[in-house]
UniProtKB/TrEMBL annotation:
This is Alpha/beta fold hydrolase. GO terms for molecular function: hydrolase activity. Keywords: ATP-binding, Hydrolase, Membrane, Nucleotide-binding, Transmembrane, Transmembrane helix, Transport. Pfam families: ABC_tran, Peptidase_S15. Belongs to the ABC transporter superfamily. Residues 653-881 form the ABC transporter domain. The keyword Transmembrane helix applies.
Amino acid sequence: MPSLPRPRPRQVVAGALAVAIAAAGVVWLNTGDEPPPVATSDQVIEVPGGPGEQSSVALDTRLYLPETTPAPAVLVAHGFGGSKESVDDDATELAQRGFTVLTWSARGFGRSTGEIGLNSPDHEVADARALVDWLAARPEVVTDGPGDPRVGVTGGSYGGALSLLLAGTDQRVDALVPVITYNDLGQALVPNSASTGEVPAGTPAPNAFAEDGVFKRSWAGIFFAAGMGGAGLADPAGDAIEESTEDDDAAEAAAAAALNGTGAPGMGGGPPGAADPCGRFTDAVCAAYAQIAQTGQAGPETMALLRSVSPVTVTANITQPTMLVQGEQDTLFGLDQADATARQVKGPVKVVWYTGGHDGGGPGPDLRAEMGEWFDFHLRGIGADPGTGFEYAVQGALRAQGSPSVRTVTAPAYPGVGGAGPVERRSLALTGDEQVIVNPPGGNPASISSMPGLGSVIGSSSRLAGRLAIDLPGQSARFRSEAMTQQLLVAGSSTVRLRISAVPGTPPPEGGAVMFAKLYDLDANGVKTLPGSAVSPFRVPELPADGSPVEVSVALPGIVRPVETDHTVELVVSATDQAYQMPAEPAAYRVALADADLAVPLVPGVGSSTAPPAGPLIGIGVVVGLVIVAGAVAYVRRRRSDTFDPELAEVPLVIENLAKEYPGGLKAVSNLSFRVETGQVLGLLGPNGAGKTTTLRMLMGLIQPTEGTIRVFGHSIRPGAPVLSRIGSFVEGSGFLPHLTGRQNMELYWAATGRPLEEAHFAEALEIAGLGGAVDRRVRTYSQGMRQRLAIAQAMLGFPDLMVLDEPTNGLDPPQIHQMREVLRRYASTGRTVLVSSHLLAEVEQTCDHVVVMHRGKLVAAGTVEDIVAGGGEATFRVDDPETAAEALRGVGGVGGVTVDGPLVHADLDGMPRSQALKVLVNAGVAVEQAGPRRRLEDAFLQLVGEDPQG
């Protein structure tokens, strides 16, 4: 037989693409009719402003009309930070089903006016009632009586809570479908999952909902930042949740300014300004956030406010058919929130748990169709009765195509609700001795359970996100079960009873002991997965200082997890978690099992697979899969071929056209380019929200850029890149174990890196830091300045060629700042490079030789400190005859702002070279002793970011 030529890779890819396009054409030709047309119209609806506001608020709305009217109506509310545009697809789908749909931008978002009251009964809920009034007068809407439209309501997260609040206050609502929302906002943002009594166990996912909870700092900061801008950070229910582009401290500082009365007047209402720390929030909401952000604990007024805007206040009034949809991948509003609502509503209720959530995305097409069928039956009287059952999705092993298998388990009713019997719970024996755990100073470094707002970005599968959890040694107690002999399907919140005590001599901090409980699935190889990335925070407020134990019942996070044969379950109790506010004081606790049994909820039911249909689609899927694989291989090859630029091998850092855009259009960094040379101390400056933190995270390989490149010594930065070992970093607040010496803390840190001891360079790092003999003293005896220098020394271990420091002088007094300045200069003098992100402009001016100024994600200036300072053209001259000098300069065209200050004359040269001004003075007979730029770095910085102090 003649030999056939071997196809080239490009030919294979081209052939696969051709087949895929042809297959797609066949599918397209065989599709059914186009969906029915939908007409839309936008209008502004005026509603009453509410107590303490202007007379009216303008709501930006959009009406969707189906092919045939009149029809029942559905209100679709958007998620926090979104607008009517966020729910356009959902509204269109419902209109195509035959409903008249109304969407709107809630007050304070999009183009709507007013202030954000977090679904206040007198504001956002009253707005929704006014929209129902408006629908009642529309000829396109079916009515049940005068002023009573036949109407349903749905929405996700913030919009889901509004659905419940509206239904509980307006009986004209005929059916509702709240999605991934909360029952009690106070318990969602300040949860306490432990009780000295027993946690109710009748339903699958109860929580203790106790008082004195732990502040969910990261999530709260994300949402407060969204409200400060009035838009831009959409809820996953509306579209997608995005990462906060700056530290939570920025939002806290703004709120603190409002609480202390330093904000500008006119907060809220109109578009927020630079001096408007409350953004579009009401003063009450802003003050509540400031109170909790500064203290870490919610006061009575804050909790009362959060409860007043929560569905729990009206759920007892809800008699309408309610379909509760909650996500299994949700670290913001967990399954416990829907569980509480299911127990409280009085009407028929159906509960659905699906594989998404704030960390996993919104409902897919099948679930959206099920929601539409709920409205079909209850508003239009068509289709089968959806009933009041309970459905939950079980995510299994990965398929060959890479996506996880999912099956749905259906039970006749939600256990413990509407006459259904209580949930079944199985006792699972745990073993483990009493263990001591430590909360380091400032609660930092902290364990990691989740990355709020990034879960859906990390991956749709919980496997990837669940394996990112980290529990630091010395901070976590562990208790483990025996290996499973058959699959254990956990469906809800397990409960356990713990015995907690303070270690004598280390009394618990004021406010009580804060801890975090979570449940891992360990496979036979010891690989751990934290289902849903979920953790249950709890506080034991009155822990005796004499070491007497307190027993508490802890509700673990609500999860759905099939624990397979040969797997084990591990309960971990940690003293820290980076997503929450921890006590600043160091403390040590003893943790033991009060009862060796873990009570695991089981909900039996009928299972059905959601695998794709067989037949011709399989062939198409294979072809498309081949194309994707081929494309991925080509992409990886391109990335590998572009990992090193030999021309930049000696350059510490080059950033070119860097951009980071999050879903929803939020641009944290845009077209950023700058270069850092060997031996420089470069300051990265910018106001809050400038994109500094996002840039540093991309530099450290923690998040991926949308566009552009970051090269360190010629190598492209990506997660896990080997060149990252040449970077040392120090994050503000790095904690140390107080009972160990400085040297022991550093040795422990270095051991955790896994690198050889001889590469540590302990002596050299300590010499540069200037700690002397103090390195062998216990850290608890250190001053703040010594702790900061120890942290710098730790970052210097291994002598990284590039050191990245975030606020290294924060919290230091002037002498300590001077010492730190010398440390950084000495390190740079060794031929290495330092990048400092700081808000202390005076210190940057004295410490750094180069500056990069960012504003709103963009580069506004870069260069030496001297060039930046001199950029405004303002100059100062020291002369023997100030009056004559001033008169001479005033006579020069273009020169302005001439003032006399003792022997100094200040002038704005407006671009004139200083040498020409000197010539003018000399010709006037004035002796000039000194000439130079007048401005400080602070003046230059404020002018660059649009806040010129002279304005």
